[in-house]
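pasting for the record
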Amino acid sequence: MATKVIAVANQKGGVGKTTTAVNLAACLAALGQRVLLFDLDPQANATSGLGLEKVEGASAYRVLLGEGSLLDKVKATPFDRLEVVPSEVDLCAAELELARLENHLLRVAQALKPVMDGGRFDVVLIDCPPSLGILTLNAFAAGDGLLVPLQCEYYALEGISMMNRVLAQLREAGVNPRLDIFGVLMTMFDGRTKLSNEVVGEVRRLLGSKVFETMIPRSTRLAEAPSFGQPIIHYDKYSAGSAAYELLAQEVLARLQNAAATTAAA
């Protein structure tokens, strides 16, 4: 299976985007996949969530401006088969500086090329900023698909419709003709509330098989894990959050393998 790039994105903050990027990456690695987590969010929460310090100059900032190789930015984590391109606050400047460069939407795709060509990873997950700025659009331009975490609340669907419009614009402009939503993940689900169940029902009705069967529960243990620099399967392996992300990783892997088989048959 060729290396697949999945952007984890939602322009709304607080929906479990980074939690999903970190925990899905760790669970895919636990299933035997060689995973690179590319932290493209200047807040660098995915970096600290894997137990790494935020180090000045460690991010992809200079590489995106055309200096050096992304391979030199890849760092080991304490977890087998999981490596990371860390982030730090200097990526904020990239939003401004990339806009002035040629091919400004293709900088992440170009930076990833040697990573893809080397065959070192099976999956690259990109943790995007909570906005539809230049860094996020770069991730969309580089991705084979988009994983969208949606919180179980009424405004969730507004975010999806906006995301679909952006994807259509990028496809029509020829920036990334293969771009589509790989999957939609319902997060912060509380089965005891009428609201959570209604929102999930509505999202499934509108988006059908795009929505993962797995839902991520609202969980104190999931919220605690980043402060210890550990994905949930290492922080509390027997928690409900850990079980949910392990199931999600199996679903993601099955979708990737099905897509690869379909491509091969074609």
